[in-house]
Here is the input.
Amino acid sequence: MTSFRPLLKAIPLLALLCATPATAATAGHVTTIDLAAEASRPAANDLARATVFAEASGAAPGDLARRVNSLIADGLKTARGYSSIKTQSGGTHTYPVYGKGNRIEGWRMRSELTLESADSAALSELLGKLQGSLGVANLAMLPAPETRKKAENEAMIDALGAFKARAKVIADAFGKPYRISHLTISSSGRPPPMPIMRAAALASADAAPMPVEPGDTLISATVSGKIELPE
Here is the structure.
């Protein structure tokens, strides 16, 4: 007679082995929650940047080039008197002026210089001197790279702290621990626009320094990610 006792003893062990994977899957199940937090820090606008230009119109491109190049050369000569100001040649463009019948009636040429300095007072003084012959296309106050980086790092630390605080509030509400499974960090911040007078007004201005108010740029950092709560 065949005995089934060993087989009966093996059935509970087989059932246990079959149940183990299902138990592990349940224990490993998590609830995923998307979160985001933001923080900001002010960064001093300690770098001034301006673009000045010479522009002329006429019938002969060669004559225009001589006039514009002469104005730019004079501007460079004046700018070189300020050791704290970095000067760089910008773009030069010549384009036709069309009249009736879509025929070319003349030419217009424009050439630019870019000026940059941490000494806003010196740049303001230089712009005042250049205004008699050159127009000012734009003037911006912005954080120097090292100043911006410092504010970005501080804002990032604040945003990370805010993210973790939010994660803890949610985890505590569920009565569970949490784990950060993914993080993305980004930063942003632009200086406020500085209004510039029209070139025609600048061309007739005297040598008074251009008023400059540096102010601050608000640098923001955003942390977004996912947290996991075990079931």
